[in-house]
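[[Encoded backbone]]
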Amino acid sequence: METELLPHLDGSLPQDEVHVWCVDLPAWEKEVESLLPLLNQEEQERAARFKFPAPRNQFVISRALLRQVLGCYLRIGAREVQFRSATNGKPELATASGVHENLRFNLSHTAGAALIAVTQHRQVGIDVERIRVDTNAMELAERFFSRPEVEWLRSQPAAEQIPAFFTCWTGKEAYIKARGEGLSMPLSSFEVLPTAGTDECELQIKVYENPEEARRWFICQLALGTGLRAALVVEGENCRVRLGQLTSTDLNMNSRLAT
């Protein structure tokens, strides 16, 4: 699967596309104080409770840029974007009268990077993790993963086991986030593995109690560099994935579109 590039954020989003915006968090750290006013009062109070600068900056940057991106697609200002929690806690866009029916989104961040996925009329989940070399991959897999995933990890060369673990982990997290079920869905009740004999970015889902469930979803890895693993899950078929890097130029463009 080849991911198409997004040159800039212009607010257009065809129904057959999912847009994924990458955020280089360190590159935005100098903008933290200017981004803080884009958050609502509750978010600003939450930011003030962080004890250390790094997680505070990560929160402020990712939430502010999420608001900027969604505001651009909605043609409103970042502070006008409203959120609500679905039944299982998944954030969704809201209007004065209820849930926003068209635009769907998901946000994930890890050390140094954040991803924002946006679609129309499709549930979406995204997850990004930095590969941590001190991860006890097999111990965690034995505890949380399905048997086929554990066996697949054991079959990988020793040097590849930790990256392979994060391939599974991000795929599983993205799927749970797309479904919006959170901790109510055991990680061992389904599997996410690379599709045999195809591009290494292609993944497949198997849900043990509902074999037809996998037909609802498209899932893939996103190529973000050797230090990261990321996965995207989108409801439906015939969906084009487009990937872009969010810059200050996009932020300025959103300000113009919203006026």
About this structure: The longest strand covers residues 17-24. The radius of gyration is 18 Å.
